[in-house]
UniProtKB/TrEMBL annotation:
A Pfam family that the UniProt record links to this protein: Na_H_antiport_1
Protein name as annotated: Na(+)/H(+) antiporter NhaA
Organism, as annotated: uncultured Sulfurovum sp
Membrane-protein topology: Multi-pass membrane protein
Subcellular location: Cell inner membrane; Cell membrane
Keywords: Antiport, Cell inner membrane, Cell membrane, Ion transport, Membrane, Sodium, Sodium transport, Transmembrane, Transmembrane helix, Transport
UniProt xrefs under InterPro entries: Na/H_antiporter_dom_sf (IPR023171), NhaA (IPR004670)
Gene: nhaA
Phylogenetic classification of the source organism: Bacteria, Pseudomonadati, Campylobacterota, Epsilonproteobacteria, Campylobacterales
One Gene Ontology biological process: regulation of pH
């Protein structure tokens, strides 16, 4: 009887597959790192599309409406209390906090379990990232010394992880997996550096009481973690309060996203011991119940599936679950809105050259292109020659050279820093965005074509 039911169930599942032609694509088992790469590639593609849309709108008859839309005021009122900001501000300070939360989760994952958890492997991307931040900042500062744009030295330090990884992933098997991991680790260290720069150097007047309350909220989240609370809701509520206190303190509110991520548990509630045996027993029980002719589940099967889901969640971690669940909303909503609100610059082709040669634009272009190459490739070459670090497995120095150009795609984080560095100065922000777009486009194309047609991998025996 049992065998008959199994045969019948398999036959019915086979029939159902006839109506699911895309099922094969969804059956592929992907590692968390592969999920991460896929999410970043998706983000990069959508980001590119929305950047083009923003540029088209800013240079069309709809330009004025486009500008007024993002400067529309949105108010939150509770009794006599009011929080009022423009839509542009809500996107940059509110939605981008979710983006920075994802960055925080990525940093924590890499430090605890990923490339940065092994000091020997992590040394090269850490040193290269430091070089890729310091050298561009110095180049920018030397070009803009004594000018009103001197405060923008942090702009060329950044790397847009989504665009950079998208370019590398498009190369497929032409680049070794270890080189992709190197770029991911480098970009994450770079993000950490950008967060610190924003928190320390691009913060205006600090209000002590709200900052202390934000610190108190973080301690509450750490207490939740310490006592084994794995439910997401308590962290969300306290994290939201921490974001508000950070906003009121004068420290950029997006920093709350990174700090909150550090408090999210990265250890499972239950150890995955005997997990496969438990699940196999439950699946065997699942198969003992007949499938209805209309393919609906038996009530007992629904209960078994719910129990399996709970068991899977118990051996997973809240940090991994949040990183997985938030990547798609961030890729399809947060980052596109940020690009739409910030990438639209009105281009006068008669004066574009004169804008590109202003000290701010030149500092950014030189920093993101030459600074990144000198910093990332130069420091990596020196570290390897001094035997402080080793090349990623199967990679060549020529490929590191190409990756250093991809590190010059500043875009999202560079625009974000430019908005903070030149707040209230529309002309300098415009010059910065021109420099960022020119440098990111050149760096991305040069890096891609170098890796595609010139750089070669080293065969691994």
């Amino acid at each position: 009887m049992y065998n008959t039911l199994q045969i019948k169930s398999r036959y019915q599942r086979k029939l159902m597959r006839l109506y699911a032609p895309w099922e094969k694509a969804f059956k592929k088992v992907a590692t968390p790192f592969e999920h991460f790469l896929h999410a970043q590639t998706t983000t990069g593609m959508v980001l590119m599309l929305m950047t083009i849309v923003a540029l088209v709108l800013a240079n069309s008859p709809l330009a004025e409406a486009y500008k007024h839309f993002f400067h529309m005021k949105i108010d939150l009122n509770v009794g006599s209390w009011q929080l009022s900001h423009t839509l542009h501000h809500w996107i940059n300070d509110g939605l981008m906090a979710i983006f920075f939360f994802i960055i925080g989760l990525e940093i924590k994952r890499e430090v605890v379990f990923g490339e940065l958890s092994n000091l020997k492997v992590a040394m090269l991307p850490i040193l290269a990232a430091i070089g890729g931040m310091v050298v561009p900042a110095l180049i920018y500062a030397s070009i803009n010394a004594g000018t009103e744009g001197a405060g923008g030295w942090g702009i060329p330090m950044a790397t847009d992880i989504a665009f950079a990884i998208s370019a590398l992933v498009l190369l497929g098997n032409r680049v070794p997996r270890a080189l992709v991991a190197f770029l991911v680790a480098l970009a994450i260290v770079d993000d950490l550096g950008a967060v610190l720069v924003i928190a320390i150097f691009y913060t205006e007047q600090i209000q002590t009481l709200p900052l202390m309350l934000a610190g108190g909220a973080f301690l509450v989240m750490l207490t939740f973690n310490r006592f084994g609370i794995h439910m997401i809701l308590p962290y969300f509520i306290v994290g939201l309060l921490m974001w508000f206190f950070m906003l009121e303190s004068g420290v950029h509110a997006t920093i709350a996203g990174v700090i909150a991520a550090m408090a999210i548990p990265s250890r499972p509630k239950r150890a995955p011991v005997d997990f496969t045996q438990e699940i196999r027993k439950k699946l065997d029980r699942y198969d003992t119940y007949p499938v209805a002719t209309d393919h609906t589940l038996h009530a007992k099967q629904k209960g078994i599936l719910s129990n399996i889901k709970d068991r899977i969640n118990a051996v997973g971690t809240p940090s991994a679950r949040l990183e997985h669940d938030l990547h798609l909303p961030v890729a399809l909503i947060v980052i596109p809105l940020f690009a739409l609100a910030n990438a639209g610059i009105s281009i006068d082709f008669n004066s574009i050259f004169s804008t590109a040669v202003t000290p701010v634009s030149m500092g950014i272009i030189a920093g993101l292109i030459f600074g990144k190459v000198l910093g990332v490739f130069g420091v990596a070459w020196l570290a390897i020659k001094l035997k402080i670090a080793v090349l990623p497995e199967g990679s060549s120095m020529s490929q590191i050279f190409g990756v250093s150009f991809l590190g010059g795609i500043g875009f999202t984080m560079s625009i974000f820093v430019a908005e903070l560095a030149f707040v209230g100065n529309a002309e300098l922000i415009f010059q910065a965005k021109v420099g960022i777009l020119v440098a990111s486009l050149f760096a991305g194309l040069f890096g891609y074509f170098w890796l595609r047609y010139i750089a070669k991998s080293i065969s691994v025996a």
